[in-house]
């Protein structure tokens, strides 16, 4: 990229205050930028980089530097991640030569450190060194010196300071730390082991990142890429997961070039496996407390919750996990050993979290020892040794290095057997007494006849009761509670507050436990038929095998007598349909998050579950929003579970008209691509904030939204779809990418539709979206 490296883009030039700007494009004293909807910025002469404000949500702006000529506008530096600027804030090159970010009332939000004073002008350059300390990213030709600290951000979209950082120490080492303010040596999870009191970290024009001594000697290669930076964009970043990665963006990449489209990793990450690199004496480890870290196929860490635990923060998988059950009592009079059992996870451990160790143990002996100890939450068994661990668990990892180690997770169990109430038993006894009296007072013929009728009725009732009261045949996950009907009746105050209703049931609001804020949603199946029974079993079976931040969590169920109820986490912001089609238009950036969240949830269902799941009914009414408006897929009553090696199945038409893929009506086997089609329609609705079918539309061409969206794309007038939406209009490149992605989703031929994993990459800008083929027609089953 012709040595384009622009740390701060602004080279602040100290000159006498009487000096004038010498070159075209220089920013004179008094120049300013205002934070507004237009993402205002100053460009470098070539336009490769921009400095200014990036909108991070409604009324919140980040002062940043980004690659301007690529679609996803990747940020490489930010100034006020810990203190976002409100609408109307200004970055100002003051008349006394200071660069200051101030809020609309003039209060200072940020200024460079160290402060640079006596500035005559700020030159917009395409080459040069960083003027200020970098945040999480370094660019080619940059050199970092002793004492420089680089902080990772909090999360992918949150630019506030995170827990990971690296520092070039005066002792000659480059060290990576697992906490913002390290407590001891255990916070270091990677170190360069270099020696020298004067050295630097260099990102050279050959695409290498390395440590060098003051005499120019290369001490250690940090990354080994040798891609020249002259023809491509490159960056190296300490990411929010604590891993240092180097990326390249090929300017000439396209679908036929054979090169990756978008940013791709070009060197081994540092460290190669952060899951096994961190073992803190004080702290949670690579992931949050009570979770464990597993390296995915893409070599990125995943933070997972053990059975019986869920994430503390559904929007941040690194936040840690909490128990979903009341832990074992330490009251000696109530040992509760019959109320708990164990779930096993192979090759998993929480090093440094043990408080007791015993050798010469069997696995059964290890279980019994943990069960008898109320403090024991997890036992680790391996090689005849049993380690007991208590809450909170730290340094969790799943790795092949733990081969033979088995984690025994203690979880609460619940009585699955259905019991008759006293009232039911009394009614049955009364009936039998009446029948007996009649038999004693009638003729022999009548008695025989009544006896036969009674036998047939009794067998019929027993058959029905047996069918209705049999336990649901599912592989129940630990932590899922079995409720009695009486418990749920009391929790919902007699099923008083209705949240919504569907074809087979009604959803009510309830309170879980004694806390008035611990809400839950109870779905009552009210039309008891063979199909509704299948729906109940499908929903429990499907969702009990899932664990993802974008899927609604099933807390438990009631399977008592004729009562079938499902208990879910309460989603305080209701359905996406209410949110999207209400009186006020939701933020464009929130709609982006929702679209990506639904895509990630579907990708998990299709590819990452133990048994792959086709949801079969993706629509706004089945997407719920939690307190932070994070999207969660719900209602698995029509879901289809596939066998391990199965990719398609045959079934009757399921789903909702208007969101159904064409193959439902063509007697074809269906696959996960039916969900892809439905998601495409949902995505267009998210883009335009309106329903797919609006017969009252004033313009006939706009009645069917997906047809109108394709017409606008084909005519090159995408802006028409969002012309009344200022936020979306100012982000038109992303709007176009989303529309193109939706058109791919809605291809009539299922084979042409991408997988949800690929769609997620398209939405996030990780891969280029090719031009969608022209469909012969859009099939709309309205």
Task: Explain the overall architecture.
The chain is of the alpha+beta class and 782 residues long. The chain folds into six domains: 10-124, Agglutinin, subunit A, CATH 2.90.10; 137-272, Agglutinin, subunit A; 277-412, no CATH class; 422-469; 481-569, Phosphorylase Kinase, domain 1, CATH 3.30.200.20; 576-764, Transferase(Phosphotransferase), domain 1 (Orthogonal Bundle), CATH 1.10.510.10. Helix content is 20%, strand content 27%. It is built from 13 helices and 47 strands. The strands form 13 sheets. The protein has a six-stranded mixed beta sheet with strand order 36-40-41-39-38-37, sandwiched between helices. Strands 4, 5, 6, 7 and 8 form a five-stranded antiparallel beta sheet that branches. A hairpin with a 5-residue loop joins strand 9 and strand 10. The protein starts with 9 loop residues before the first strand and ends in an 18-residue tail after the last helix.
């Amino acid at each position: 990229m012709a040595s384009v490296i622009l740390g701060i883009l602004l080279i602040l030039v100290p000159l006498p205050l009487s000096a004038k700007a010498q070159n075209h494009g220089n920013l004179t004293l008094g120049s300013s930028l205002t934070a507004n909807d237009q993402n205002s910025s100053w460009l470098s002469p070539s336009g490769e980089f921009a400095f200014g404000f990036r909108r991070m949500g409604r009324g919140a702006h980040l002062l940043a530097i980004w690659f301007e000529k690529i679609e996803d506008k990747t940020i490489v530096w930010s100034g006020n991640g810990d203190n976002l600027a409100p609408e109307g804030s200004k970055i100002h090159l003051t008349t006394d030569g200071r660069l200051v970010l101030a809020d609309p009332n003039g209060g200072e939000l940020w200024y460079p450190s160290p402060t640079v004073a006596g500035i005559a002008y700020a030159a917009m350059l395409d080459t040069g060194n960083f003027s200020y300390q970098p945040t999480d990213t370094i660019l080619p030709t940059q050199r970092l010196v002793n004492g420089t600290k680089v902080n990772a951000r909090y999360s992918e979209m949150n630019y506030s300071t995170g827990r990971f950082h690296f520092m070039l120490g005066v002792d000659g080492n480059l060290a990576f730390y697992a906490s913002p303010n390290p407590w001891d040596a255990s916070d270091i999870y990677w170190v360069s082991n270099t020696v020298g009191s004067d050295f630097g970290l260099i990102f050279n024009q050959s695409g290498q990142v390395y440590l060098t001594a003051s005499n120019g000697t290369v001490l250690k290669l940090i990354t080994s890429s040798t891609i020249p930076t002259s023809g491509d964009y490159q960056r190296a970043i300490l990411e929010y997961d604590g891993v240092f990665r180097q990326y390249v963006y090929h300017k000439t990449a396209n679908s036929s070039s054979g090169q990756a489209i978008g940013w791709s990793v070009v060197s081994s990450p540092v460290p190669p496996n952060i899951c096994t690199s961190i073992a803190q004496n004080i702290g949670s480890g690579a992931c949050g407390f009570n979770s464990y870290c597993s390296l995915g196929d893409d070599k990125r860490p995943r933070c997972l919750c053990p059975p019986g635990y869920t994430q503390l923060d559904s929007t941040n998988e690194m936040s840690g996990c909490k128990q979903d059950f009341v832990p074992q009592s330490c009251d000696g009079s109530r040992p509760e050993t019959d109320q708990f059992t164990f779930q096993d996870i192979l090759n998993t451990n929480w090093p440094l979290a043990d408080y007791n160790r015993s050798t010469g143990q069997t696995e059964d002996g290890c279980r019994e020892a943990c069960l008898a100890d109320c403090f024991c939450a997890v036992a680790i068994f391996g090689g005849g040794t049993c380690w007991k661990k208590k809450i909170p668990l730290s340094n969790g990892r799943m790795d092949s290095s733990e081969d033979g180690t088995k984690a025994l997770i203690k979880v609460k169990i619940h009585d699955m057997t259905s019991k008759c109430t006293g009232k039911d038993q009394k009614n049955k006894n009364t009936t039998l007494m009446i029948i007996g009296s009649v038999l004693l007072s009638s003729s022999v013929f009548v008695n025989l006849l009544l006896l036969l009728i009674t036998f047939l009725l009794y067998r019929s009732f027993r058959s029905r009761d047996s069918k209705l009261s049999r336990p649901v045949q599912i592989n129940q996950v630990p932590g899922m509670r079995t409720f009695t009907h009486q418990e749920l009746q009391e929790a919902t105050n007699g099923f008083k507050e209705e949240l919504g209703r569907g074809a087979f049931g009604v959803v009510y609001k309830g309170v879980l436990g004694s806390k008035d804020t611990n809400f839950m949603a109870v779905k009552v199946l009210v039309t008891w038929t063979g199909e509704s029974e299948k729906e109940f079993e499908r929903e429990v079976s499907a969702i009990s095998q899932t664990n993802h931040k974008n899927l609604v969590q099933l807390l438990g169920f009631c399977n008592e007598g004729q009562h079938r109820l499902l208990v879910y986490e309460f989603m305080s912001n209701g359905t996406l349909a209410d949110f999207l089609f209400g009186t006020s238009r939701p933020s464009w950036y929130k709609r982006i998050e929702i679209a990506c969240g639904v895509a990630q949830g579907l990708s998990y269902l299709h590819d990452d579950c133990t048994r792959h799941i086709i949801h079969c009914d993706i629509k706004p009414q089945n997407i719920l929003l939690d307190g932070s408006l994070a999207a969660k897929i719900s209602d698995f009553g029509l879901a289809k579970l596939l066998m391990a090696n199965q990719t398609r199945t045959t079934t009757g038409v399921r789903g909702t008209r208007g969101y159904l893929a064409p193959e439902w009506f063509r007697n074809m086997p269906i696959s996960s691509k039916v969900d892809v089609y439905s998601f495409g329609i949902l995505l267009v609705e998210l883009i335009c904030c309106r329903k797919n079918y609006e017969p009252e539309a004033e313009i006939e061409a706009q009645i069917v939204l997906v047809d109108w969206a394709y017409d606008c794309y084909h005519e090159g007038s995408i802006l028409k779809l969002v012309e009344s939406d200022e936020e979306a209009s100012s982000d038109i490149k992303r709007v176009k990418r989303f529309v193109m992605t939706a058109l791919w989703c809605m291809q009539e031929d299922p084979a042409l539709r991408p997988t949800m994993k690929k769609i997620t990459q398209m939405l996030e800008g990780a891969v280029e979206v090719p031009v969608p083929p022209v469909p012969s027609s859009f099939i709309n089953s309205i």
